[in-house]
Amino acid sequence: MSIAGPLLGIVITLVVLGVMAVVFVTVFLPMMKNANKMLAGANEMIQAQTAAANLRMTGLPAQARVLIVQPTGTMINYQPQCRVDLEVYRPNAPPYRAAILAVIHQMAIPRVQPGLVVPVKIDAANPNNIALDV
User: Fold this and answer.
1) Which residues, other chains included, contact 86 with Cβ-Cβ below 8 Å and sequence gap of 6+?
2) DSSP code for 3
3) Residue closest to 84 by CA, chosen among 69, 71, 73, 72
4) Are 55 and 46 in contact (CB under 8 A)?
5) Alpha-helix runs per DSSP H in the chain
């Protein structure tokens, strides 16, 4: 009986395992790292949306004039995220400028345009923490 048969089986098994290891390292590991980055970004967006929703419920009401609206290129639930520069008017306080990132529902886009006044909610502890209330 020859040992070439079992030796050939071991060699083929080692070659297949080696190819699988190379594919795993070159393909799947980078994909997993990218997936982790995407999940972290999604988690960050969810936290920001939750904070904005909480602020809309608990914040101090005020008015703000829209100065600039710039889409960021990010869509959340098919709604555009925009950088919005505002001039904020609070009762019994001087106006001030602030910039926020806001997801603007497509139906609300016409109401959030430069020159228009929009309702906002302001964090009492941090007046630069602002949520559009449209």
Assistant:
1) 64, 65, 66, 67, 97, 98, 99, 100, 118, 120, 130
2) S
3) 69
4) no
5) 4-23, 29-58
Mention every residue, 6+ apart, whose C-beta is less than 8 A from residue 113: 66, 69
Q: pLDDT tens digits, the chain, 134 residues: what are they?
A: 566 677 888 889 999 999 988 888 888 888 888 888 888 888 888 898 899 999 999 999 999 999 999 999 999 889 999 999 999 999 899 999 999 999 999 999 999 999 999 999 999 999 999 999 99
Domain ranges of the chain: 59-132
The encoded tokens of residue 60 equal: 């101090």
| Residue corresponding to tokens 């999604």 | 42
Q: How far apart are CA 83 and CA 132, in angstroms?
A: 12
At 129, is the secondary structure helix, strand, or coil?
Answer: coil
As assigned by CATH, the class of the 59-132 domain is mainly beta
**Strand bridging mode 79-89 / 117-122:** unpaired
